[in-house]
């Protein structure tokens, strides 16, 4: 079993819809939780960074962390075609080693 | 502020050869991490350097090595290349910001 599980999709939604992404993990020592967006032929771009449990909002993006369930989510409101990309969750115990999910490919249809 | 710079962007090598990849972190950042990204295994941690010292290492064979210089620039070396080493190699600066990677193809 992988340390971080993420459904690879693909996920296809119409423009304006809410995109819901999630990851589960098994390592209870994870304290820092990140979401990245990766476009083709590019490196991962940091979208959200949260510490411990709770919600964090940044523009159209909301990240949720539930440490009791070992479950994290990312919601994208009012999705745009430019949001079409692969979304990766990542986690860390507090050192500089990140453990990644497999990534979910999202397509937003115009 | 300049981002993470990785060179070269693309490389084609033959089995058995060795390769060196370079990464310049964001100015002022002293930590550099390296990751391998493949379709089958996703993003996997290789190692992390801080102030010229390796602080953390992933589960990769000894053919994968790295170093960091006093100006924080880092190099990663892969010796005796295998077909399975074909991947996107990503560098991260302290520890969250990634470059666009070096695409290595081994033939």
Explain what this protein looks like in three dimensions.
The complex is a heterodimer of chains A (110) and B (107). Chain A contains no helices and eleven strands. By secondary structure, chain A is mostly beta strands. The model of chain A has no long low-confidence stretch (mean pLDDT 95). By secondary structure, chain B is mostly beta strands. Chain B contains no helices and eleven strands. Chains A and B meet through strand 5, strand 9 and strand 10 of A and strand 4, strand 5 and strand 10 of B.
**How do the helices and strands follow one another from N- to C-terminus of chain B?**
EEEEEEEEEEE
Averaged pLDDT of chain A, please? 95
Strand content bin of chain B: over 45%
Note the quaternary state here.
heterodimer
Question: What level of helicity do the residues of chain A show?
Answer: under 10%
Number of helices of chain B: 0
Q: Beta-sheet strand percentage of chain A?
A: over 45%
Number of strands of chain B: 11
The H/E string of chain A reads EEEEEEEEEEE
Structure class of chain A: mainly beta
Features of this protein?
A: 110 residues; mainly beta; 6-stranded mixed β-sheet; 5-stranded antiparallel β-sheet; 0% helix; 55% strand; globular; B: mainly beta; 7-stranded mixed β-sheet; 11 strands
Helix and strand layout, with pairings?
The complex is a heterodimer of chains A (110) and B (107).
Chain A (H helix, E strand, L loop, with lengths): L3 E3 L4 E4 L4 E7 L6 E7 L6 E7 L2 E5 L2 E6 L4 E6 L8 E8 L6 E2 L3 E6 L1
Parallel strand pairs in A: 2-11
Antiparallel strand pairs in A: 1-3, 3-8, 4-5, 4-9, 6-7, 7-8, 9-10, 9-11
Chain B lengths: L4 E3 L2 E4 L5 E6 L6 E8 L3 E9 L2 E5 L6 E5 L5 E5 L8 E7 L3 E2 L3 E5 L1
Briefly say what this structure is.
The complex is a heterodimer of chains A (110) and B (107). With 110 residues, chain A is mostly beta strands.
């Amino acid at each position: 079993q992988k340390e971080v599980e993420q459904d690879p999709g693909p996920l296809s939604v119409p423009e304006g819809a809410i995109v819901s992404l999630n990851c589960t993990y098994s390592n209870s020592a994870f304290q820092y939780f990140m979401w990245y967006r990766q476009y083709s032929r590019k490196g991962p771009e940091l979208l959200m960074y949260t510490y411990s449990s709770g919600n964090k909002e940044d523009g159209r993006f909301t990240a949720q962390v539930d440490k009791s369930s070992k479950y994290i989510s990312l919601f994208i409101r009012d999705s745009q075609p430019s949001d079409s990309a692969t979304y990766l969750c990542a986690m860390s115990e507090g050192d500089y080693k990140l453990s990644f999910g497999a990534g979910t490919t999202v397509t937003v249809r115009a | 502020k300049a981002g993470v710079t990785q060179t070269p962007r693309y490389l084609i090598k033959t089995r058995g050869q060795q390769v060196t990849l370079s990464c310049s972190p964001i100015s002022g950042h002293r930590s550099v991490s390296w990751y391998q990204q493949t379709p089958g295994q996703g993003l996997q941690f290789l190692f992390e350097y801080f102030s010229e010292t390796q602080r953390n290492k992933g589960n990769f064979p000894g053919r994968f090595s790295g170093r960091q210089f006093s100006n924080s620039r880092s190099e990663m070396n892969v010796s005796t290349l295998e077909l399975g080493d074909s991947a996107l190699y990503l560098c991260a600066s302290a520890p969250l910001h990634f470059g666009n990677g070096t695409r290595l193809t081994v033939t």
